[in-house]
Amino acid sequence: MEPYRTDLFGQVIVTISDVRAWLAAVPRIDPDGPRAEHYARAWHVVDKITRAKLAGHFDALTAPRAAAPAHWWLRFRWH
Question: Do residues 61 and 22 touch, judged by C-beta distance below 8 A?
């Protein structure tokens, strides 16, 4: 993994694509939906992305998730 680029003042660059990738990783938040902008502002998504990039966790946090197995609910069945 290469280090993230910074701007002239040493700040980590956060693009709209980064924000959309973060929002896509949040359950029940549609990056194109009406709640996305409110969520991003209220939960300080840009700050979280910056910290995740500096810690080297951004790619892992925004990676596409594998689909759940067809019978995932069987794990929670009471015997």
Answer: yes
Q: What does the DSSP assignment read for 11-60? A: PBP--HHHHHHHHHHSTT--TTSTHHHHHHHHTTHHHHHHHHHHHT-HHH
Give the predicted TM-score (pTM) of the model: 0.75
- As beta bridge partners, residue 6 has 12
Other beta carbons within 10 angstroms of residue 45's beta carbon come to 20
- What are 23-78's pLDDT values in tens digits? 999 988 899 999 999 999 999 999 999 999 999 999 999 998 776 666 666 667 66
